[in-house]
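Please decode residue identities from the backbone states below.
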């Protein structure tokens, strides 16, 4: 009896260790370079004195160690953090601006996060907000590539870059800007301009030596509490969701094309739309009790104001899909990262992030 208990305890520990590390200890952990918007920002904007688009104050970070606001638009970690951990990293890479301030170190060769909240694919998006647009994030990456070449020599640098995972999560802010600006541009023309911008960014990264792209497309942004309050019923804004679906479909076509054109390019495309709609349609499967209301905010759906120190705060945060008017909770971000990492073809194609990393 005693023996069995000990044995099952050991089995439990072994199983638990396996899941918590998930990635195979025999496989080397690939470096990860993260680009994008607030869904992946781990503190970039907190290091930009001139921007107001920041989350370095409570209640952000309430479920972090010591309830510390870290600049993440979340009650804790975000999906960039969870993805890094799933790929085998002990912790999520620091923002590029952190290294810029403290000095470049060899730690940067294991990973850097360039993501900046409110940025988009287009330089125009967030132009007046003093954030780091995608084109600038790529210039910053270029300086990391130079450091790598300086330290390791060109051949080794190219080898390391080819093994690295390039994670990109962006595009929602371009579509938000399109609607906020009441743009007269035809929707198809606008989507094409976003895809053309994406193609330029991927080409630039490829030319620097990147080969493995983990691309995260646009979620059903019309279902964010900030958009739901523009629908009298509190339902999703369908027109924005239509945009998100069209974007995914065009991005899928682009990536297929690029993977034929660019030798050795590999990619995994995460379908954030399907992943999120699946949760919204079946909240009980994931133990969510609220999929339309922000946990932190004010007013209708807690979405008429952003999350500030004196905003309303929910207590059962793991039961909410949305942390604030636009961003998922820590728990929802973890679900998303696990799906990107190990999900099936319904959610991530043609391979998942685990398979991408293993190449
Ligand atoms: C570990 O490696 C094995 C064999 O390479 C693979 O089948 C399995 O999916 C890997 N596990 C994880 C969690 O990546
Ligand atoms: C939206 O309008 C603002 C303010 O005029 C402008 O700065 C920004 O570039 C526009 N964004 C897009 C995507 O057109
Ligand atoms: C508002 O939400 C309802 C569902 O509650 C949906 O049927 C309707 O199309 C939405 N309206 C708009 C303008 O998106
Ligand atoms: C949901 O909650 C039940 C009961 O607490 C638990 O058994 C189950 O594992 C939870 N499901 C998920 C997806 O967390």
């Amino acid at each position: 009896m005693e023996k069995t208990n000990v044995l099952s305890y050991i089995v439990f520990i072994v199983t638990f260790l396996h899941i918590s590390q998930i990635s195979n200890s025999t496989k080397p952990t690939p470096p990860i370079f993260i680009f994008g918007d607030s869904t992946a920002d781990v503190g970039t904007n907190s290091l930009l004195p001139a921007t107001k688009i920041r989350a370095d104050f409570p209640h952000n970070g309430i479920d972090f160690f010591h309830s510390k606001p870290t600049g993440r638009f979340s009650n804790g970690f975000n999906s960039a953090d969870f993805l890094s951990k799933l790929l085998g990293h002990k912790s999520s890479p620091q923002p590029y601006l952190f290294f810029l301030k403290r000095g470049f170190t060899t730690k940067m060769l294991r990973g850097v996060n360039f993501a900046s909240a409110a940025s988009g694919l287009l330089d125009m998006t967030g132009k007046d907000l003093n954030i780091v647009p995608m084109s600038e994030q790529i210039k910053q990456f270029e300086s990391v590539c130079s450091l790598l070449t300086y330290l390791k020599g060109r051949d080794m640098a190219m080898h390391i870059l080819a093994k690295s995972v390039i994670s990109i999560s962006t595009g929602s802010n371009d579509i938000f800007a399109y609607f906020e600006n009441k743009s007269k541009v035809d929707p198809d023309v606008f989507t094409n301009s976003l895809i053309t911008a994406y193609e330029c960014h991927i080409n630039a990264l490829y030319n620097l030596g990147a080969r493995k792209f983990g691309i995260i497309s646009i979620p059903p942004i019309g279902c964010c509490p900030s958009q739901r309050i523009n629908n009298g019923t509190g339902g999703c804004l369908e027109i924005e969701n239509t945009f998100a679906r069209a974007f995914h479909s065009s991005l899928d076509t682009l990536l297929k094309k690029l993977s034929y054109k660019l030798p050795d390019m590999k990619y995994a495309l995460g379908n954030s739309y399907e992943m999120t709609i699946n949760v919204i349609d079946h909240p009980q499967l994931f133990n969510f009790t609220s999929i339309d209301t922000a946990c932190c905010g004010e007013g209708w759906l807690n979405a008429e104001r952003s999350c500030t120190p004196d905003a309303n705060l929910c207590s059962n945060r793991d039961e909410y899909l949305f942390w604030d008017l636009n961003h998922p909770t820590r728990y929802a971000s973890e679900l998303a990262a696990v799906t990107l990492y190990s999900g099936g073809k319904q959610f991530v194609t043609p391979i998942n992030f685990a398979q991408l990393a293993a190449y």
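Observation: Residues 238-261 form the longest helix (24 residues).
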